[in-house]
Amino acid sequence: MADDTISTKELIKEENLVYKKSKILTDNEFHYCPGCGHSTTHRIIAEIIEEMGIQSETIGVAPVGCSVFMYNYMDVDMQEAAHGRAPAVATAIKRLLPEKYVFTYQGDGDLAAIGTAETIHACNRGENITMIFINNGIYGMTGGQMAPTTLVGMKSSTTPYGREVSLMGNPIKMTDIIVNLPGTYFVSRQSVHTPANVRKTKKAIRKAFEYQALNKGTCFVEVVSNCPSGWKMNPVDSNKWMADNMLPFYPLGDMKVPEDQD
């Protein structure tokens, strides 16, 4: 009797594949908490690098925070930076190796707090780098403390009753500041909490890499994300909370595009 069983090798043919892991990603399993936006954003960046065929031409810079583990998961040249200093390190790399695609990958506690000066001045100078900014409104790695991006009334380990403007000041909208600087060429704010938003984020980051090759200035993409562990929620509830609370304050969309792309 003939064996009608289809082998795995026969089944996994190119025409049958809906999705396969990017070759840019290593075999290390993501350590991020379930539902965290970092994993999805890593995958997006890896796919873009593979699709553009720029693996050997790409250099990433990741500083302190959850982003620091990026070099474990992506098979491209990576340079670690001190907390908040990724834009300064990326500036040096790009100036020394102008033909390379250089990007930073930073959280809000890094980019919008200790790294505020480096961020603003790199963008104001128009350094030809791509900056990817993960904003989950909290210090995720170090214990869930309030970050500069924490919403008014939002609870954290250091604001157990919610952020009060009279004591802690207002949350800062870094991308709204960045978009007004003359050195920025492309600025966008996106998210990865739904499949549709994942596609939009991939499109924005792809544009940022492509525009970098034009040497027209800094490309900046904010990704509004969740932090299920820091927010003390399950992944589903954290995404809903983000949509209901974060996105009205940090609205999504392209904020600055080249004039010929309007």
The end-to-end distance, rounded to whole angstroms, is 64 Å
Task: Indicate the mean pLDDT.
Answer: 92
Number of separate structural domains: 1
Give the fraction of residues assigned to helices: 25-40%
Looking at CATH, the homologous superfamily is Thiamin diphosphate (ThDP)-binding fold, Pyr/PP domains
* Overall geometric form: globular
**CATH topology term:** Rossmann fold
Can you identify the CATH class? Answer: Alpha Beta
Number of strands: 9
Which descriptors would you attach to this protein?
two-stranded antiparallel sheet; 9 strands; 10 helices; seven-stranded mixed beta sheet; Rossmann fold; alpha/beta; 262 residues; 36% helix; single chain
Description:
With 262 residues, the protein is α/β, with parallel strands linked by helices. The chain has a single domain, classed as Thiamin diphosphate (ThDP)-binding fold, Pyr/PP domains (Rossmann fold, 3-Layer(aba) Sandwich), CATH 3.40.50.970. It has ten helices and nine strands. It has helices spanning 8-11, 37-52, 86-96, 108-114, 116-125, 165-168, 174-178, 195-212, 228-231, 235-249, and strands at residues 58-62, 77-80, 101-107, 130-135, 138-139, 145-146, 184-191, 218-224, 253-256. Strand 5 (138-139) and strand 6 form a beta hairpin. Helix 2 (37-52) packs across helix 8 (195-212) and helix 4 (108-114) packs across helix 5 (116-125). The model has no long low-confidence stretch (mean pLDDT 92).
